[in-house]
Amino acid sequence: MTVPPAPAGDRPAAATTPAAELRFEEVVKRYPGADAATIEGLSLTVPAGEILVLVGPSGCGKTTAMRMVNRMIEPTSGRILIAGRPTAEREPAELRREIGYVIQQTGLFPHRTVADNIATVPRLLDWSRDRIAARTTELLDLVGLDATFAGRYPTQLSGGQRQRVGVARALAVDPPLMLMDEPFGAIDPITRDRLQNELLRLQRAQPRTIVFVTHDIDEAIKLGDRVAVMRPGGHLAQYATPAELLLAPADEFVERFVGADRALKRLALGRVRDLPLERPALVRHDDPSAWVRAQLGDAEVPYPLVVDPDGRPVAWLDEDDLAAERVDAAAGSPVAIVSRDDVLRDAFSTVLAHAVQYAAVVDDAGAVVGVLSSDAVARELAPAPAPAEPEPAA
Ligand SMILES: Nc1ncnc2c1ncn2[C@@H]1O[C@H](COP(=O)(O)OP(=O)(O)OP(=O)(O)O)[C@@H](O)[C@H]1O
To answer: Which stretches are annotated as coiled coil (predicted)?
Structure first.
């Protein structure tokens, strides 16, 4: 993506702010008049550039914990530090401008266009018109919306599109820290899945520190570098990586919350790139069938895969398709397509939805880099083999 040069004196439009470490130190929140604390001595550190997911049942204090970070709620005691600096020392309005904030209903201004919504904080910071325009174009592209969305109003968008604009707005000034409060909670499962994948893609491209609140453990496991499981009463039940949560829950509460279907959850942890890919025979429309058959000898996949001139998958061929003298791509079967960064659970269901139980794994440009078989995924699910029995003595 090319970004027009920033006017002299302006910072470049592209992301440059380094992610910030976030630290809670013995943070307590007691609402006035409440019998018990809502957050009870929360201490944890989120390394710069990681996603912290706060997860737990309704009312356990997730939103309270998150809103103390940008001082929308003040802690009763304890400290919160961003990049080593206590938030209590910062002026709240200034602090909030540096922290991206995305909420479930996006909070977009309905009477302003998408572009105007995205420009909210840049305007407060007196960015030049050119710089705001360049950044808006860049952000729309980043969140997967084309430039024509700039002039639309929020009511003219789908829920998923609105949520993308909400994310673009939060990213506008390239914040070192983002707070996301159930951002995908009101979105249908398919779109939610896509938005989650896009968030992970954005995070790989430009890592920033993110605090993400959800009550959905699957979302927590998918998105979190670390997950803080909260229990009612504002106690931290466990703060761990998703793998640790699944494999070594701290107590019964966490175990129950994480759920029984552990094997399936393991699938949610792995990525396509973690599994060995198989090598297919790649062929083109109009290749001679005899030549294609010869290629199959060396391939690890029993079906030839037709690709277009850019190496993108078009169709699988079977023996019947090769009866003709030359390859006819239109005659083949549809190809399940997954990317190396897809979580295995999603990849597996994509494969299962297709007649040919192999998925073409593609790179960012959509070109085939290998094939994932449903067998390889199933092997990943299988329990570790028991240690071999010693040979009985002769
Ligand atoms: N301003 C307030 N005054 C008094 N009590 C509050 C206030 N805000 C939240 N609470 C209480 O604090 C507790 C935690 O609320 P919070 O919204 O942080 O939980 P949550 O885990 O985010 O819940 P949910 O998943 O339902 O959004 C709740 O019992 C709530 O009623």
So the answer is: none
Cα separation, 15 vs 43, in Å, equals 30
Cβ–Cβ < 8 Å for 121, 132: no
Question: pLDDT tens digit string along 225-284?
Answer: 999 999 988 899 999 988 778 777 889 899 888 875 666 667 788 889 888 899 999 999
Q: Which of 75, 28, 37 shows the shortest CA–CA distance to 233?
A: 37
Q: Which atom of ligand 1 is nearest to the CA of 230?
A: 21
Angle at 111 between CA 108 and CA 112, to 5 degrees: 65
The rounded distance, in Å, linking the Cα atoms of 373 and 366 is 18
Give the least confident one: 13-22, 100-109, 205-214, 240-249. Answer: 13-22
Q: Spell out which residues line ligand 1, taking CB within 6 angstroms.
A: 31, 34, 38, 56, 58-64, 215
Residue 242 CA to ligand 1 centre (angstroms): 25
Burial state string for 215-225 with b = 16 or more CB within 10 A and e = fewer than 16: bebbbbbbbbb
pTM of the model: 0.67
**Band of pLDDT at residue 7, cut at 50, 70 and 90:** very low
The CATH H-level superfamily of 274-380 is CBS-domain (3.10.580.10)
Predicted confidence (pLDDT) per residue in 191-218, tens digit: 788 788 888 888 888 889 999 999 888 8
Cα(199)–Cα(197) distance, rounded to whole angstroms? 5
- List the domain boundaries for the chain: 22-269, 274-380
Cα 126 from Cα 117, distance rounded (Å): 15
What CATH architecture does domain 22-269 belong to? 3-Layer(aba) Sandwich (3.40)
